[in-house]
Every structure is written in structure tokens, then in C-alpha cells.
Amino acid sequence: MDKVKNTPLRIGFQCLNYGFFIVLAFTCIYPFWYLLIYCLSDPVRVNEAPLYFLPRGLSVTSFNQIFQLKGIWSAFLISVLRTVIGTIVTVISCGMLGYLFTQEEMPYRKILYRALVITMYIGGGLIPVYLTMKSYNLLNNFWVYILPSAVSAYNVILIKTFIEQLPKSLEESAMIDGAGYIKIFTHIIIPLSKPVLATVAMFAAVGQWNAWFDNNIYMTKDHLNTLQYLLYQYLNESQRIAAELKNASSLGSITVQQASSLSPKAIRMAITIVASMPIFMVYPFMQRYFVKGITLGAVKQ
Q1: PROSITE patterns from the xrefs (predicted)?
Q2: Which CATH number is associated with domain 60-294?
Q3: CA–CA gap between residue 22 and residue 19 (Å, rounded)
């Protein structure tokens, strides 16, 4: 096989191509690096001059304030539990429903499928949904984090589209051998649908981990608070305290250094890092499935 000659034009194009992607990678990575160096900088010195690549001073005050929050570890456990259980329930329910909608002999299949799609565009409204949760005794109940998000129309459509691209002869052969729908789903569909199931799992895990609004609406018991909601509360509280300290320093009650020791901006950035880190740790293990699953249906054969 002949090698491609490295002409000056080709070398120039490669340099531009590599340079473009290096700049693109830098623009994606730098915001997170900036978050890290800002919250690691000394709160008193951080405003002396703009930060670029290295922290000014070294302080873990922002992280210490976060990890010393009352109930932080129980909230972390609740977030982990809702993420793990919610992801498993979502993958199973959406997978089964997506497979069910591929069966042409299913009664009222088109009507039910259209009803599912409508839910993507028309919501039930906050008050009706709240009353529904109350009628099912899901208020102050851990399962209010799991059941309402068990089925996602978008995820069902994603799985249905993927399964429809699988050879129909596999199901027909299994049925001839006496396999039922459950056995076909567990022994044929699931092994062949790992890319799309991993994609749905990633979507569900990110959604569950980042969720805080349902905690705000449906929960009044502190022991069921999630990490995201606790951090949200603390961020608002830190902003209020910082404003009070600033007013106190202007009146001479405390020094400027004391007022600057609590930086809402640094805390906000530390919260972003703490909240994002688990997803960053999980994503590399699911990347190959995620990339393949997210591009399904892009090319039709």
C-alpha cells in the first residue's frame, strides 16, 4: 500500500487541524481548571489580581466548609442510593417498554406510543403532580425520587429505535425454538443493546445525581435530603452570611480580612467540583458505550 506523501499543503493542514483540536480541548478543560484553582486560592488574596493558571496562596477553606456541613454524609448516601437505584429502575423499565413497542402484535400499540410521545411536549403541571404524589403517599418518601422518573419518553424512543435496527430473524428463530418474550428480551435483546442501555444509564445517572428540585418540593424531613439540595441550601446561606459580613466590615465591626474569609464565589466553585466529580469518575468507564449509543440512528442502512 502506497504511503501518502507529506506535501507542504498536507503538513500545513495537519498543523491547523491539530492546533484547532488542541484549542478546543483547552477551552473545554480550562473552565474546570479555573474552578479548581479559584477554590484552592486564599480567599483573602484571590481578589488581588486575576487568576489564570495557578492558585494564589493555598487554602482548602471552601472544601472544609462544605464537608463540615451538618448531614453532608447522609445526604451523600441518599444521593448515591437514588442514583444507583433510579438508574437501574429507569434502564429496566425503559428497556422493557421500548422492546414492547417494537412488537407489532401489541394491542393499541400506536395509540399508546403516541400517548407516550405527547408527554414529551405536555407536562402535568406542578400542582397536579404534587397532588398525585400526595395521593400515592410519596411525600417524605424515598421512592418519590425513583418512581416519577422511572419511565422517560425520550429514553423509550431511543431504545425502541435501536431494537428496531436489530435483525428480526433473531427473534423469529428464538420463538421457533420455544422462547417467550421475556427470554428473548433477557437473552437476546439486552446483550445486543448494551450501547443504548449504557447511554440511557448515563442520562439517568446524571439526571438523578444533579436533581434537587424534587427534594425541595416533596421533602420536609432532613434525613432524606440529597447532596445537591444540601449544597444548594448552603450556597444561599453563604451568600447571605457574606453579605452580612460585608455590611459589618463597612460599619467597622469586623476587619476586611474576616469579611473576605467567606467567599460565596469560591464556595460556589467548590460546590460545582464536589457535585461534578462522581460523574467525571464514572464517565470514562462508559465512554465507549455512550459514544456508540448516542450516534445510533445517525446512519440508516
Answers
A1: ABC_TM1
A2: 1.10.3720.10
A3: 5
Mind listing the pLDDT tens digit of every residue in the chain (301 residues)? 456 567 777 888 888 888 899 999 888 888 888 888 887 777 666 666 677 778 777 777 777 777 777 788 888 899 999 999 999 999 999 999 999 888 888 888 889 989 888 888 887 788 888 998 999 998 999 999 999 988 988 899 989 988 888 888 888 888 888 888 888 888 888 888 888 888 888 889 888 998 889 898 998 888 888 888 888 887 777 666 666 555 555 544 444 454 455 566 777 777 778 778 877 777 777 666 666 555 554 444 4
Specify the residue for cell string 483573602: 44
Residues recorded for the chain: 301
* CA–CA separation, 43 and 258 (whole Å): 10
265/213 Cα distance (integer angstroms)? 22
Q: What angle do CA 74, 77, 78 make, to 5 degrees?
A: 90
What is the rounded CA–CA span in Å between residue 201 and residue 270? 26
What are the DSSP calls for 6-55, one per residue? --HHHHHHHHHHHHHHHHHHHHHHHHHHHHHHHHHS-TTTTTSS--SSS-
CA-based radius of gyration for the chain? 26
Q: Where are the domains of the chain?
A: 1-59, 60-294
The three grid cell numbers given for residue 101, joined into one nine-digit string: 413497542
Phi-psi label, residue 125: left if phi above 0, alpha if psi -120 to 50, beta otherwise: left
Q: Helix or strand or coil: residue 111?
A: helix
Alpha helices in 119-212 (DSSP H): 126-135, 153-164, 168-176, 181-184, 190-192, 194-210
